[in-house]
User: Which sequence fits this backbone?
């Protein structure tokens, strides 16, 4: 049970965000209002108000920055994307709440049959959703997209992209201190500060020690965050002056050690594979790999639905690497099979909220399945419509960047956008296994989309828009070996 400090932190966060907007430059204030809330506000604690979604560590920062930018700052807020495909996906994701609610009005009742028919003992039920629930779900969907839409407008410049990488690196360095404490003493900081433990303690025990969790939902979330912090430090190291490079390389080494200590095989594998690419490879290679990640993340659930993924072969490969990891992966696959069968009963719009998408015992209502991957949660809750819109909206910025480098190479490309595409792509891959979609994931995707919209005027559904870096549309732009007219 969260203590008073947990609820006090939720209450004062809007004030803290306003102070940041008054004292920091806009890009930095926007980033830290979202990232700081994700890293330091209490998990699970929320204010339950009638007819609105729960106000928690995600919705409160998102709502705060929207209100501050709309009413307390001089900047004009333009939430509508320029890309027509992005517009359709935004509308689809928000409005997917309506058919999901309207097609789930019936309650799910759990009964126990008596020894003599027709005696039936009523045990429990999950309530059906009504029209009044539409508003709450719509608001929740809109608040989810706030970081995406604001970052598209305010963080798409080269300075904004650099600020994202800098915040991730600094956030990783700051978070390493409580993480090291938990690695040594066991994960207790959330208990000490907010009065409760947010997950199963046994899942923090790994390899004869502990993996940290601090104020995040799970140790896997923290490990993935440390991975992005490591890649951010590496990307910044590549761009700094030679005199500062040694200091930055020390930060990279330190965050690399922290990633190892987080004891997450997947995040460690991401770091090992992607770190050399961020340091040495051209931006176009990084973007191409990010596009591959996005395509795999979109296509895998579709193939999984149709039974075209060779699960046995994948488990055999995992067994060769680590029996423990193979057992964990097999557990995920088993639960996915159950949840897919459940989702197949309402494939278009899903089962809606209240945990109706979960597999439960027909008599007691006890939960029999555990959803891990974000894709299976979205698919079971909002069906094909919600899944296509959510994953499509995350993938579309990467696809636009891929289309740009195919046409123009690395021209007019910010040196900071390529590593961010890699981080977004690998997060989408991780969402196949874990529900690691965070507000900062949306913020990163929005910044990349805004950058792509400036690079691709009048192409692929993006209206004509002047380059922010000074290039003039309609004039010839000379590239090595070719001449392109924009």
Assistant:
């Amino acid at each position: 049970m969260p203590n008073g400090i947990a609820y006090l932190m939720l209450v004062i966060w809007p004030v803290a965000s306003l102070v940041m907007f008054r004292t920091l430059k806009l890009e930095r204030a926007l980033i830290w209002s979202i990232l700081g809330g994700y890293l330091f506000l209490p998990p699970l604690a929320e204010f339950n108000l009638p007819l609105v979604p729960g106000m928690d560590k995600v919705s409160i920062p998102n709502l705060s920055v929207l209100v501050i930018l709309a009413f307390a700052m001089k900047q004009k807020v333009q939430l509508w994307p320029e890309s027509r495909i992005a517009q359709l996906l935004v509308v689809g994701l928000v409005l997917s709440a309506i058919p999901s609610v309207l097609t789930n009005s019936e309650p799910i009742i759990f009964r126990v049959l008596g020894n003599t028919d027709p005696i039936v003992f009523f045990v429990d039920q999950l309530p059906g959703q009504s029209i009044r629930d539409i508003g709450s779900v719509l608001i929740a969907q809109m608040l989810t997209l706030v970081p995406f839409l604001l970052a598209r407008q305010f963080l798409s410049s080269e300075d904004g992209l650099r600020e994202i990488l800098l915040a991730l690196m600094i956030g990783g360095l700051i978070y390493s201190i409580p993480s090291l404490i938990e690695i040594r003493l066991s994960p207790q900081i959330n208990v000490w500060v907010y009065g409760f433990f947010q997950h199963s303690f046994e899942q923090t025990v790994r390899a004869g020690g502990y993996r940290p969790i601090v104020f995040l939902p799970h140790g896997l979330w923290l490990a993935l965050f440390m991975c992005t912090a490591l890649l951010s430090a590496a990307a910044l190291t590549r761009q700094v002056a030679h005199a500062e490079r040694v200091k930055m390389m020390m930060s990279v080494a330190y965050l690399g050690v922290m990633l190892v200590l987080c004891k997450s095989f997947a995040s460690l594998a991401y770091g090992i594979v992607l770190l050399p690419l961020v340091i040495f490879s051209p931006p176009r290679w990084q973007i191409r790999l990010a596009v591959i990640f996005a395509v795999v993340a979109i296509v895998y659930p579709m193939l999984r639905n149709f039974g075209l993924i060779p699960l046995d072969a994948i488990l055999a490969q995992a067994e060769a690497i680590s029996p423990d990891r193979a057992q964990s992966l097999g557990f995920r696959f088993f639960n996915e099979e159950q949840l897919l069968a459940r989702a197949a009963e309402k494939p278009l719009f899903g089962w809606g909220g209240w945990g109706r998408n979960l597999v439960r015992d027909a008599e007691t209502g006890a939960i029999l399945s555990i959803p891990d991957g974000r894709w299976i949660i979205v698919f079971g809750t909002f069906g094909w419509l919600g899944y296509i819109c959510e994953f499509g909206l995350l993938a579309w910025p990467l696809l636009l960047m891929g289309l740009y480098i195919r046409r123009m190479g690395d021209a007019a490309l910010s040196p900071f956008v390529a590593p961010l595409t890699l981080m977004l792509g690998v997060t989408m891959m991780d969402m196949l296994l874990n529900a690691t979609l965070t507000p900062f994931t949306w913020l990163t995707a929005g910044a990349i989309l805004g950058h792509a919209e400036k690079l691709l005027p009048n192409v692929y559904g993006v209206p004509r828009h002047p380059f922010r870096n000074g290039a003039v549309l309609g004039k010839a732009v000379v590239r090595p070996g070719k001449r392109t007219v924009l």
Q: What stands out?
A: The longest strand covers residues 120-126.
